[in-house]
Design brief:
The protein is α/β, with parallel strands linked by helices. The protein contains 14 helices and 21 strands. It has 2 domains: about 10-180, Rossmann fold; about 190-400, 3-Layer(aba) Sandwich (Rossmann fold), CATH 3.40.50.10300. The relative contact order is 0.10. The model is unreliable at about 410-415 (pLDDT under 50). It binds cytidine-5'-triphosphate (CTP).
Length: about 425
């Protein structure tokens, strides 16, 4: 699943020192399979050469409006119409002003006027230029016309001063490219809640009972669901991986927190995917002060709530979620245990993983799963990247929703914050 593959992205580069970071962005987009066409202003070429972008993108960078007419069918109109996305990074105060006014005297502004694709801009400038009422007024105009503005961020500036004005990092801009391209994806309009990570049950202020879950599978599901156009809520316990941008984040550390967070979100959840490793037991007492060795060796435990069981009960009352997917981390009697869990927890689908395998399951980037559904099917998938596993799960979720015609049809969602 690669939303950037074969997408035509017009990358406008204007004259700011951050243009050097755009080289990295261009490289990342190209490596992800996008067809990147770089457009540069004269000032941009003072910072980075057209040759650099040409070599990285595999297409000569366009530096002159008339250069667009040298090919057979190229012109700013043709180029603009081929675009899936227009990105301008860095965007200087000057080009922003020209865009706001509708001037069209360079390849970037002319293309901006002709393009109907979504627009993403990453402004970068000195703090006072950014704060100037003229810049802010121009920014407002661009936003009102639908531009998605990323950054600027605060930090060290080229002048040596510190303040607002740094261009957003290429990795962040890349994530937003994915989000914008997802807007009309196959899951657009669908609200998916995903639980992720491993819960922690507190013994005292220092110690907890936890588990090996890293959150990688849940984060992969959230990112891929977002890239397919869904509106995603990620309810996460402790995770060792950063959550994706552009999803609604809710922290829930203990099983009890997870229960409340999930139940609170049910009315707005079409699909619930419970990838979190939720504790089954917790200490009966959480001590307020750190326990001393002298306290002994015994910790008395009690059961935590079963989140999916509670979801099953609430679902009968409110009719949501339409579909529930669970995970089964097993070490023995895998298929039989997973089938029993699917029935007991009233799930439409369960994703079974053998957590004894070294290259699959906890903490690694790959997983080998078997997907079981209520019709008795059990599809064993080969070892694959967790994002590919996520795609396989979501693809089947989409199939089940369509097949059962249970009240969801693709629509236009908004995944932007
Ligand atoms: N789960 C849950 N509430 C719990 C424990 C687990 O909702 N207190 C969910 C998990 O998120 C997962 C599914 O139930 O989607 C199965 O989790 P697992 O730990 O494999 O199963 P358990 O219910 O704990 O059953 P067992 O102890 O028999 O393995």
């Amino acid at each position: 699943m690669n939303i950037l593959a074969e997408k035509t992205i017009l990358l406008g580069v204007t004259g700011g020192i951050a243009a050097y970071k755009t080289v990295d962005l261009c490289s990342k987009l190209t490596q992800a399979g996008a067809n990147v066409r770089v457009l540069m202003t004269q000032s941009a070429q003072k910072f980075v050469t057209a040759l650099t972008f040409g070599a990285i993108s595999g297409h000569a960078a366009i530096t002159d409006l008339w250069q667009l007419y040298e090919g057979e069918k190229i012109g700013h109109v043709t180029l603009a119409h081929e675009a899936d996305l227009l990105v301008i990074a860095p965007l200087t105060a000057h080009t922003m002003a020209r865009m706001a006014q509708g001037l069209a005297n360079d390849p970037i502004t002319a293309t901006y006027l002709s393009a109907t694709a979504p627009l993403l801009v990453a402004p970068a400038m000195e703090t006072h230029m950014w704060e100037h009422p003229a810049t802010q007024a121009n920014l407002k105009i661009l936003k009102e016309r639908g531009a998605v503005v990323i950054g600027p961020e605060s930090g060290r500036l080229a002048s040596g001063a510190s303040g607002m004005g740094r261009m957003a990092e290429p990795a962040t801009i890349l994530e937003y490219c994915r989000i914008l391209l997802a807007r009309e994806g196959p899951l657009s309009g669908l609200r998916i809640t995903i639980t992720s990570g491993g819960t922690r049950e507190w013994v005292d202020p220092v110690r907890f009972m936890g588990n090996r879950a890293s959150g990688k599978m849940g984060v992969a599901l959230a990112r891929v669901a977002r890239d397919l156009g869904a509106q995603v809520t990620l309810i996460h316990a402790a995770m060792s991986v950063p959550p994706p941008i552009g999803v609604n984040l809710v922290e829930a550390i203990r099983a009890e927190d997870m229960l409340h967070a999930v139940l609170d979100h049910l009315p707005e959840t079409d699909v619930l995917i419970s990838a979190a490793a939720i504790a089954d037991f917790r200490p009966k007492v959480t001590h307020e002060a750190k326990l001393k060795k002298e306290a002994g060796t015994k910790i008395e435990l009690e059961r935590t709530p079963d989140v999916l069981k509670a979801v099953g009960e609430r679902r009968k009352e409110i009719g949501k979620p339409l579909l529930v997917v669970g995970f089964a981390a097993e070490t023995t009697d895998l298929l039989a245990n997973a089938r029993r869990k699917m029935a007991r927890k009233n799930l439409e689908m369960i994703v079974l993983n053998d957590v004894t395998a070294k290259d699959a399951g906890f903490g690694v980037d790959t997983n080998r799963v078997t997907i079981l559904t209520r019709d008795g099917a059990a599809e064993a998938l080969p070892l694959m990247d967790k994002e590919d596993v996520a795609f396989q799960i979501l693809h089947r979720v989409r199939g089940l929703l369509g097949a059962a015609s249970i009240g969801w049809s693709p629509g236009k969602g908004s995944v932007l914050p």
